[in-house]
Amino acid sequence: MAKKDYYEVLGVSRDAKDDELRKAYRRLAMKFHPDRNPDDATAQERFTEAKQAYEVLKDPRKRSAYDQFGHAAVDQGAGGAGGGFHGDVGDIFGDIFGDIFGQGRRGRAPQRGSDLRFALELDLEEAVSGVEREIRVPTLSSCGGCDGSGATDGQKETCTTCGGVGQVRMQQGIFSVQQTCPNCQGTGQRIANPCPECSGQGRVRETRTLSVKIPPGVDTGDRIRLAGEGEAGPNGAPAGDLYVEVRVRSHRIFERDGDNLYCEVPVHFSTAALGGELELPTLNGQVKLKIPAETQTGKMFRLKGKGVKSVRSHRHGDLMCRVVVETPVRLNKEQKALLREFEASYQGDKTEHNPRSHSWLESVREFFDRMTS
Predict the structure, then answer these.
(1) Among 3.30.1490.110, 3.30.1600.10, 1.10.150.650, 2.60.260.20, what is the CATH number of 250-329?
(2) Is the pLDDT reported for residue 243 higher than 80?
(3) Whole-structure pTM over 0.70, yes or no?
(4) Which pairing describes strands 285-291 and 276-282: parallel, antiparallel, or unpaired?
């Protein structure tokens, strides 16, 4: 399951200040704290989510990397912009105990390249029908001049400082401590003739143009994984992945909720009273909707199969149309006179014609009777 966006978890905007983050976290922590919600697994999960989100967003360095690369910066320990947040716990303990007991590793294996995240905005129509888009992604690519090796001739030699072990031993009092070799950074090898194009790094920064196929039915928060399209790994290691995160723009007519679409339909008061027929837009063309006589504001009509085809189940959602009876405006004298004549035709008792109004007035009377008694 994809993780929720940390800003959405805290309920703040992406440009929220530190005090806003702190207030949002405290509010959620008070609400979902396990002590206040014993035996409530959902509350425990919400509390954990809020805590994780705040731990990342309150730290400027972590927040900056998260804004660029999303959860990949946290989960992968990659960060894409200067290293991950948490580091590799196994490596930390391995280095500590290896240094103390003299069990350092021989030459670190090249690490996989960092994963990247790209936010792709789509119109609702594009998200529903699917689309192929070209995107430009700034990344680190394997250097073409040295095929990613970092060496002009592709050759590397054993590090003379550590003898190819990747670690050097230092005597500190009665203890013999091993540390990462400062000359080869633990790889056990060094480059005699660095590539001039990448300065021996094996990677160059460039902006790549990629084609992305978006399947029909995607929604905000869905991610498309492009394997091997992330940053190239150092020293010829495999590249990371690129995650394209979909964001669907708001629509002037429709509002999406899962696979269903919702819209409001303004109906003239005479059509609502007498009944009629309207033409409605859908994402697949126009359809006719019959409005029965005496239709009230709030009446919901369901058009089956006129919603979104699910990207997972491939089933079609529905289009839900909510009627809003529209009061006419800017009437001329003749029209006003006709309405007054129509109002007068009720002949006193309006209960038969306005049952909801009568019921509401009765409720108001009962309310005031209770207040004054």
Answers:
(1) 2.60.260.20
(2) yes
(3) no
(4) antiparallel
